[in-house]
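Collaboration report, partner site 2.

Our partner group contributed sequences for two proteins of shared interest, and the home lab folded both. The records are reproduced in the order in which they were received, starting with the first partner submission.
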Amino acid sequence: MTRVKGKIMDCRQILAKSFLLGILLLGQVMCYPSGAPDIVCSSMIPNHGVSANNSAAPYTITTSKSTYKSNEEITVTIQANSGLYFMGFFIQPRKNGSISQPDTVGTLTGDSLTKNPCVTSSQAALTHINKTVKYSVNMTWRAPAEALDTVVFVATIVQSKFVYWVNVKSPEVTPLFYDPACGKTISCFHGNTFLITWAVNGSYVDFEMKASIPDPDNYWMSLGFSSDKYMGDDSVVDCSLQSGSVRSYSSYNQGRSNAPLDNNVYGIIGRGGSLQNGIFTCSFSRAIKVEAKRKKRAAASATTFFDLNENWYLFFAQGKGPATAKSQHTIPPMISDTKTNLLTISDLTAPEESSTGVDLALVHGSLMIVAWIFLASIGTVTARFYKSVCPESKLCSEKVWFQIHRACMVLVLFLVAAGFIVIFVEVRSYSETGGWTDLQRAHPILGIIIMALTIINPFMALFRPHPDAPSRKFFNVAHFAVGIVAFVLAIINIFIGADLEKLPKNVVNLLWAYVAWFIFIVLVLEQDFIQSRKEKGGNSYELNDLPEKETSGGSTSIIHKLKPGILAIHAVIVLGLTVAMLVLVNLSEES
């Protein structure tokens, strides 16, 4: 009997213990069945009624890479030590791994069994949503567009209700274009896609430039020293990548122009470089100061090779071509916010917004396209071929053709003048780059000639002689010639400008389509013009209203009868080509 009672007591104790254990386990599971609540997004401490475990966490957080670039994706893993598990987790990518400052970087995403509990606070985070046992968890971190911060993944990992660890950290993940020694033992100037480091070495400063480049060959990058935030009067060191070889050169910016110094290694010692995984690296040593001997532009002297004892703004630019014949930079230059003394340790960041803005060169090009491709095309055609169309019709007391011609050409004058002013605001001086081809160097020269002709022609019209004056014939020829020369030079210069700005190839294709169409329309209308002169005679260059007997009637050809429709078709086609070019130019600016 006693034995039976003892067995019953043992069973009751076992059942009681099992029940209590089940309740305890249920309570533990119910504490975090759906992950961390949003109230812990800053503190990362769970409300479990007990303090965190102070021992070393039996868990590790690893990343697939130790560096990152803009918008890059990296795999992050929480892993339990062998034989252990965890029930819940809460992780954030924190700036510098700070606990007191809950600033997060980028975004975190996981599988369908995870969620972000910190949506309302706009913080990047991830936590579990179920109560299963976990041995490891993988997630994806996406870097922000501006890759400027060191990131540490900080986690709270829960083994049970009463056992959890906080402040579990991953190793640092640093921007690819950043060095932890920046501002400590070396000086740096860095942005999303480049890093420049330097340190004083006797009478020289040792530099290393590193940048992500889109083309594996025939590429350059430059470091400029300037007294202001504008290109012009800048001392420059260029690095060129050609056929796997890296070389360094000295050059100088005169206005918006750049040319190598006559001694293109003046004051610098090239240390070579490399191209690995799309990262172009170049090292060189630059003399702090070199005594001047010559003063001419692009000559090696103190006027073109600046003294680094003084404070300078730093410029970083990159583009296609060798350093001795550089094409225009492919992205706007990155500019330091402040002047710096390169002989003292500093850490400079180039904000994204400091290097961008309205590209006035493209505004200039757009104005010229509208002026010459659209307006001048209509104005020249009406003046040449439409005097005899609807000769009795008038608009504001003037012949219709004359009003169309005058309106178009006055608008051309205003747009060309605006474009001329815009480009001078952009370059702040006459622009001539030493690396340009002879044809490209002709662009600003032609621009000045075209501007002069565009101004001269309407002033000539203001002083035209009387129709019966002997000099009227010479005026007509001169007025016509000046207009046609300006028009032809303008179209040629637009082709050159498209090459300078490295616009999409389709822009050039559209220009050729325009030239083909314009030649075609001129040939068609010229046939009617020649026939009309044979039938009636007359002065093709005349701009005033002639007596009715000289202009009425017109040609009897089919083309003459279709002239109004031909002009309408011409206007629609050149308008379409103009709009298409403007769209492509705008898309090239965004890209």
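Second partner submission, folded after the first:
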Amino acid sequence: MNRNRYTFIFSLLIIISLFVSCQKEETHGQGGYDTLSAPVSYDDIILTEETSVYNEPTLEYTVYRVKKDDYIGNIAKQYGVTEDTIISVNGVKQSRLIQIGDYFKIPSMPGIMYTVRADGETVESICSKYEIASDKCARVNSLEQKVALKAGTTLFLPDAELDWVTRQEINGDLFTRPLRRGYYFSSYYGWRSNPFSGKRTFHGGIDMACPAGTPIYAALVGTVSRAGYDTVYGNFVEVKHHSGYKTLYAHMTEIRVKKGQSVTTGTIVGTVGTTGLSTGNHLHFAVYKNGKSMDPRRLWK
């Protein structure tokens, strides 16, 4: 009798337990919240379908110290920016001359620095020239797109790149060498003792000594602006290039081009000689930008 009573009570408990379990399964997802619209938490940020998320671009800088075997390209890759970015932000003049221990500022996004050239420029007009988004640029610099800016104002232009000429100048890849082989530098650019007067004078080019008759090539695409004879330079050729550049080739034995002729880096403009005021067979090669002489070795491959 007692045994039957215990069996009945045990069976009743099992039935009640099963009933409660079924009720929980039926109400799950209905009584509290719909799982499709439930908030999902990621690192304390709660997102729902009504939430509008916008990542505002911010410009921040990291300081990097140059190590052995570093070059601008691998530093840029490490930080996810471009070579132009590091060159521009840090005012690098010659990319091949960075030194171990130099410090670079690395921005948090690719782009370049820009200095407003004249009163009245706007973020919108500047970005139009560089073909970049003006709204992003305005946010990064905390400026209005159409507000007139003053000359000298410095901006960071996200996603902008340096122009080709500037990049080639800095990387030392703008010009090719006018002599292909068999030469040595007999005099460099800069102050020196004049071989004729003995006085200290400025040498506005470089002298490349080699045998007479060696072909001289144009160092960059351009147009011959002058060709003739000068008492100092002897037989010479001057070539006008883009971006305010000119090159001079002097002391030649023979001139092989004429004024107005278009030239490429494969054009022979003349041959090496010792005409004019010269101490021996060599090419005097000079580079000018907007009338000012530059060291050619900074600008060629």
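Feedback sent to the partner group on the second submission included the following. Residues 42 and 228 are 76 Å apart (CA to CA). Residues 22-54 have pLDDT under 50 and may be disordered.
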